[in-house]
Every structure is written in structure tokens, then in C-alpha cells.
Amino acid sequence: MxxxxxxKILLSDxxxxxxxxxxxxxxxxxxxxxxxxxxxxxxxxxPGQLTQIQIAKTFGVSKSTVSNIVSAYIxxxxxxxxxxxxxxxxxxxxxxxxxxxxxxxxxxxxxxxxGRARWTxxxxxxxxxxxxxxxxxxxxxxxxxxKMNFALT
Length: 153
Known about the structure:
Layout: H1 13-24, H2 30-42, H3 52-59, H4 63-76, H5 78-82, H6 98-109, H7 121-131, H8 138-147
């Protein structure tokens, strides 16, 4: 027998309307849509109540994700569910954008340097420093080539 629910989620008709419009908006990201659907499932006014574990299994998330959605809703309401809070100090900027990827692939597809049979990551790093505007590290080059399914061998 599980613990009793600490919080009761009772969604009003306006809340449901906001959640459904967010779900049906084509520009809404998958994570926000999933949060909205989980919150609709947690509504105690709706028939056919599921437990948090059942909801987690249904949506393919962990139980702590469902608990975090409940606590976010209790603290901040619908806006806390819909809005994704990112840390402004977080460096989520891509190291290599599409233009640099294309230039890197152009270099790799070209002939290998004099006296070499093929490109290595170190050689690519040196060549990228010479040809490209921005310095690019070996790891960024490796991840880009891996993403493009491009093997150096």
C-alpha cells in the first residue's frame, strides 16, 4: 500500500483549456507537451485515476519526473509547467554550427596532407585553425564527424 498523495491537483476548466491549447500548438516542444499531458492525467476531477507510477510508465518517464511536475505545479501553477526554466549562466551554445560543419567536411573530403595516407583528428585540428575563423578543438571535431557518421578510416 502506497503513501497518500500529499497534493491534490484539481484543474479548472480554464487550466485544462490552456493545457490543451499548449499541447495542440505545433511549436511546443515535446518535453512541454509531455508535462502538460502528465498534468492532465494527474487531475483528480478526471475519471479513471492513475497512480504516479502508472503515469510514469505510460509516458516513459521516471516517477521523480512526475513528482517534480506535481511540485512545480503546486509552486508556480500552469505557467511553471509550460515555461522551461534554463540557467542563464549555462553554456549550451554549440561549438560547431552548420557553416563550420560544412567547412570541416570539405576539409576531410579533400586530399590528405603531404606524406599522410589519411586525416587524423590532430591534423584536422591544425588545418581547422589555419582555414577557419574560430579555433575548434579535437573533441568538437570528433563529435561532429560522429554525428555525420563520417569515419576517418
